[in-house]
Write a structure and sequence with these properties.
Length: about 270
Amino acid sequence: MPSTHAWLKTIKDYIRLKRRQFRFKSLGIRKTVHYLKQYASVIDIAETAYDKVVMHPRLNESTPKTPFDPHYFYQDTWAFRRIHAQSPVQHIDIGSRIILVGILSCVVPVEFVDIRPLTADLPHLSNTAGDVLNLPYDDQSIDSLSCLHVTEHVGLGRYGDDLDILDGTRRACSELQRVLAPNGLLYFGLPCGQENTIEFNAHRVHTVDMILSYFPELELVELSGVTDDAQFIENIPQDILDQQYYGCGLFIFTRKTPVGVSSASQT
């Protein structure tokens, strides 16, 4: 049973959320009125050349610049460049954006794993139903692996998964660590910032130190990132990423083969 404090905070945060939504709704009303005026003005002309005219409003695309999500834009281009440069025999992706895995499959065979199976059909792209908490692979068996903007959602119920508020991200990271082969590369990304924060039920934001603690068996090869002001910085100093509110940490990890032990004997 939630505590009194929990219920009071829930009510307070909900009121704050509704106030924010009301401001956006007011803006939407003005755009709707403008749209209706435009629609009425084009009907007579359009019907002279087209069989029919119907409403299909798009109210938020008249912008002075092309909008983009800096996390996903920079993350996906970063991951593509890094993976393509390595030219692995096969790459396995866990739940990242399907536009990335689709384009990546043009240059390297890709197996895409998601709890919600992808039904798209492309050459060199295979699709597997799987859970990041229980991946269908043997220990230390994957040479090239990615999981981008995924683990921050695990255990928050957003995608119908069971609630695991404290350990969702950690358990997912542990499973990624388990399947990475000696000398393999893990391309990993998620929100990073000043504090470990749960923004329920959208995502978590983690500190870099917490993420590093989730991969005790692996070594960090690269840390790049995206700042709050939408700047992409390759090999970003950790202290800069630690200053962000909602930055994006882009990590490359590897599992080093112990001295005197071959990769074959490890797998």
